Amino acid sequence: MNDQKKAGFWIRLVAFAIDSVMLGLIFIIPSMLLMTTGNPEFNTIVRAFLYLIIAVGSIFYFGMMPASKHQGTLGKRIMGLKIVDENGNRVKAGKSWLRYIGYIPSGILYIGFIMIAFTDGKRGLHDMIANTYVVKAAADSAVEPNSHGVKA
Known about the structure:
The protein is mainly alpha-helical. About 55% of the residues lie in helices and about 5% in strands.
């Protein structure tokens, strides 16, 4: 692995919390609107559909964002982090999905996530499964410059 600075447990936890809050807000507003309507049968059907959309949206969000040009979720981007392969490059879609599937065993008693705090490469079980790393993005690449060359 190259010499990029690895991201530790706490900063990654904050990035995940940011993602959770953002996704929660996106889906809580329609849910609250549903509660104000008076037709319980309609609400049940729409709520089930909304939960399906939430599940599919979350799967694609966490499954594909590492392979995007941002190299991670919006929470990771806000925290100045990115997900890279063993050579420090952007991960391909297959590796991104493998990493996401690795969340399943990582989530068992959260041991796979807690491992981040104790492993040399600051890697969770899902990172080890997909052979990925979460690193601190270079200061000049954390925010893209706009058309005038000024960082937003």
